[in-house]
Amino acid sequence: MQSAFDSLKKLTLSIQPLSEEEWQAFSKLWKPFTAKRKEVITTAGEQEKYLYFVVEGVQRVYYFDEQHREATLVFTYAPSFGGVLDALMLQKPSRYSYETLTASVFLRASYHDLQTLMQFHPAIELLIRQGITGALTGVLERLVELQCFSTEERFRRLLQRSPHILQLVPHKYLANYLGMDATNFSKLINKVKMD
Prior knowledge:
The protein has helices spanning 2-15, 20-27, 85-90, 111-120, 122-148, 151-161, 165-168, 171-178, 182-194, and strands spanning 31-35, 40-42, 50-56, 58-64, 70-77, 80-82, 97-100, 104-110. By secondary structure, it is an alpha+beta fold.
């Protein structure tokens, strides 16, 4: 588990420098957590209680409506933070679900512990704010892609951002993320690989 904390430290310090004392206080919040494949960790309608740090595995945040339509919104994988961030920070019931696509290993910190620590350490509050701002930037970029780019352009951008994603995420979820049918996604993969 030490390597998990080393990865957490590396990512944390790349977002916001912390003193050794601040890092020690922050690192004490995190507890190991595991989940099986296809396990819903946060269900829509529940309050998000934890911020997750992904050590192993792949997860997704998705929306499911009354007409049984599903929209994959975000993928998370090591080393990154995960969970339903808006529900966590607002402490309101989540509109989305957070599900493992593969067996997953995490470190997780409770909202209550994070809030308490942020009150005493301005650098940790800044770290959380910087992390959430980074996530918001990603969401805004994705909205632009969905509204302005063709399916092929969205696919190419996804591969530029995460070239390894085809090996990590089942293709049916990638197709859903891109807003297309799984059959058309297969054709798109073959077309883009030939270019």
